[in-house]
Amino acid sequence: MEICGGQTHTIVKFGLEGLLPKELTLVHGPGCPVCVTPLEIIDKAIAIASMPGVILASFGDMLRVPGSSKDLLTVRAEGGNVRMVYSPLDALTIAKQNPDKKVVFFGVGFETTAPANAMAVWQARRLGLRNFFLLCSHVLVPPAMEAILSSPASQVQGFLAAGHVCTVMGYEEYIPLAEKYNVPIVVTGFEPIDILQGVYMTVKQLEEGRADVENQYVRSVRREGNIPARKLMAEVFEVTDRAWRGLGVILSSGYKLSMAYAEFDAEQIFDIESIRTVESPLCIAGQVLQGLKRPHDCPAFGRQCTPEKPLGAPMVSSEGACAAYYRYRHYRTSNRSVSA
Amino acid sequence: MDNKQEVDFSALSCPIPITDYPRVLLAHGGGGKLSQDLIRKMFLPEFSNPLLEPLHDGAVFLVDAGRLAFSTDSYVINPIFFPGGDIGKLAVNGTVNDLAMCGAKPLYLSVGLIIEEGLPMEDLWRVVRSMKEAAKEAGVALVTGDTKVVEKGKGDKIFINTSGVGVVEPDITIGPNRANVGDTIILSGFIAEHGIAIMLVREGLEFESTMESDSAPLNGLVEKMLQASRNIHILRDPTRGGIAGVLNEIAQASNVGITISEDRIPLSEGVRGACEILGLDPLYVANEGKLLAFVPPAEAEAVLQAMRFHPYGRDAVIVGEVVANHPGTVVMKSTIGGSRVVDMLSGEQLPRIC
């Protein structure tokens, strides 16, 4: 299983699965930040963006993720002030330029995006900005890996750990996981050749009967990670329980703003506490994200649920397993009909 | 940012400058004296041609009996000035190219301007001058037009609509449903330059080298191609949606499969890097001066050579072919040897988080 959505993207984009021997199956893990962000947080972002006097800034691909009734692009079309940015620091600039507006950055993602969000909040305090807030739904990789490994149905025999997450965090926290569950973990990069080497290193460990943590992505990852980034995150965030779309609540699996920075927490400032959302009962995203089912096992796949009208998050992002399967579906079907 | 974009206004100075009004007012579109001033002092001298000069409600002209191509497009780009061009150049080239993709020789264009009140008069001059230059290069005349001014906040600086007519020679039949199995697919040059140039300006990103829009009129190139082969099946300019969008439309319209090779598609290092940083796939990024041609294999080499002799086709390459397999679907062979489906985009291309 590759953990990170960026790796899934490379695998799909370069057609790597077709190059591997058929005995090897790659399971796409829960590492697409768009896919695992719970519906409830998206509904909260939509509620905030619809309020007068608010500018909601977000990374681009969160804008199209459907909440229970609409998405952020629709909010923008209805007159909400929704901006697409490439960095939370851009949102900070928007806050400086619009002192009469409340500017909320929709901070989602893994340990990779967390340092920049921590930096934005830290800077906001340093600059004395009173109109910048973070709607924070950060998630952490190791607890999700443990949740998958501890599930009795899990068939995952090896992991490609996410290279950029480990660039920030290092890989020490994976060592006890590899030992406890007797599973090889290889920290892997994002170029096609990185992924193939990561797969090779994992298979080699399995063949040799080893279950170690190895580092394929040595040009970026150090054992201890990026220490200044970790220090900043430790100051701004604290570990909390988080709901994962499709996986449910995992203990100690995310970040929220620490007590010292609570004044920047959008969930504390805006009246959105009453928003409680349940996922579509048709969608089996949870089982897909855990690698228990394939997207086309879902009765809604390609019918009620398509990239144009997604029911669940894995159909939204180009990294999502369902969207990738949907694209290949016509190809496979037509190939079969031609050869038959 | 880019010196070539810094226009020297003294060199542009008009014979009777509209200096009384540094900005466009509502009255400039009101049909009164200011409207007339704008037409007589700016549009007429710049777009000067015998069909426009009578200032009648429309242009009246003769065409040879035969088939006409007729096309329209509106331009709402932000920012209106960008490296490699501006909204005026784009508006002329866009419609010229749409006509050329029908296999037509473009002749006459109309121009509809919707201007937001307060637009600096200098900016309007720049846009109008640029339209004049583009029309001159493409060999078309701007023969009729209209100007409206909307209140501040009701538009975004300036919107332009152009429509155009062109003549199609009797033995030319070009259309999106004409792809045949075996057709060779030729791409006229480097992709994604326009879209990336615009994105970089919007995002305020700077690279070592400035990336310029590829906006260019393609009718001259098409003329050379049609001289090399009268059997070109399809011509398309991959604007919004990029080459992926156009290839998918053709695969569906002709109900054929299309295969392309990633390593053949011309992509500059700068554009490749910018796409990675912005999280975009260059196959889906807009071009404004490129075309894709579907040609019977026996005539592909002749068309390719003709293209390479033209300045807007000198980097032309064969990028793929039409196949019987997987009808309606575009498949790309990746540089590393795998293959993937290149799908149509659902909605707009949104940058990925990581």
Describe the model.
The complex is a heterodimer of chains A (340) and B (354). With 340 residues, chain A is an alpha/beta fold. Chain A is built from 14 helices and 11 strands. Chain A has 3 domains: 2-32 and 141-215, Rossmann fold (3-Layer(aba) Sandwich); 35-140 and 226-269, Rossmann fold; 285-339, no CATH class. Chain A has a 6-stranded mixed β-sheet, with helices on both faces. A 3-stranded parallel β-sheet of chain A has the order 7-8-9. Chain A has a two-stranded parallel ribbon with strand order 1-2. In chain A, α5 runs parallel beside α6 (114-126) and α6 (114-126) packs across α11 (227-236). Chain A starts with a strand and ends with a helix. Chain B is of the alpha+beta class. In chain B, 31% of the residues lie in helices and 22% in strands. Chain B contains 9 helices and 13 strands. Chain B has helices spanning 9-12, 33-47, 87-101, 121-138, 193-203, 219-228, 242-254, 269-278, 297-308; strands at residues 67-75, 81-82, 85-86, 104-116, 141-150, 158-168, 184-187, 234-236, 257-261, 292-295, 317-323, 330-333, 339-341. In chain B, the strands form 3 sheets. A 7-stranded mixed β-sheet of chain B has the order 8-10-7-11-9-12-13. A 4-stranded mixed β-sheet of chain B has the order 1-6-4-5, covered by helices on one side. Chain B has a two-stranded antiparallel sheet with strand order 2-3. The radius of gyration of chain B is 21 Å and the shape is globular. The chains are: A alpha/beta (340), B alpha+beta (354). At the A-B interface, α1 and α14 of A face β13 of B.
